[in-house]
Amino acid sequence: MIYRSVVHLINEYIDASDRQEGDALPAEKTLAAYFKVSRNTLRKALAVLEQEGIIEKRQGTGSIIRHKKTVAWLNGFMGFSEIARIQGKPAVSRVLSFEVIPARENIAAWLQCEVGEPVFHVKRLRTMDKTPMQLEETWLSAQRFPRLTMEHMNHSKFDFFEEECGITIAGCYETFSTALAHRDVARMLNLSEKDPVIRIETQAVEPSGRPLDYSVLYNNNDEFRVRYFYPRVR
Fold first, then answer.
1. Cα separation of 26 and 214, whole Å?
2. Tell me, what's the pLDDT at 80?
3. Same domain as 130, residue 180
4. Residue 176: which of 195, 201, 153 has the closest Cα?
5. Which domain holds residue 27?
6. Model-level pTM greater than 0.90?
7. Do 48 and 96 have their domain in common?
8. Burial annotation 163-201 (CB, 10 A radius, 16+ → b, else e)
9. What is the pLDDT of residue 75?
């Protein structure tokens, strides 16, 4: 159905524009010409967006944006809390579990520590403007960061590295893949178990390349998107 494609295009248009919640979309005639579709097709798409709570039709005003997804444009490494500050939205990191466990072989390899060495294992739900955006599972060396507490993880772990430990973060390796939301991810992010999510493996490192952590993130694609700019390298 053509109008389903237009629903996606209008969503992308809203996300990429400077318009904010409460702002009006262009007139139907203008949008129909922009997307090169009939007014009838456009109206079907707008009706779907209204049902989804993205827009609201108002007599005499047109279509008003009710909900705009968070889209962060990055050309460098930033943590979730820093992205929220740039977006001007309150961010909360809620620790779901905080424990010390023996490092399994794969975790030891990521953290460059011995198998069985004590490591912190932390699960956090990251929200922005009270909307669940990201579920994070992270591991850190307990021997290297003995002062780490649950309170630190209720905020930014990168602030802990830089401000309390005096560590310089050189950057972060990220590996992206897609997956279906399993039960815990779906429940925490208000998704269906059939919904696709972006799974991201991340590791922050020092200038020497020494790893600071290893994390697995699940992003709520319906609400939180990050777009990167990569400069051309020749």
1. 45
2. 76
3. yes
4. 201
5. 1-65
6. no
7. no
8. eeeebeeeebeeeeeeeebeeebbebbebeeeeebbbbe
9. 61
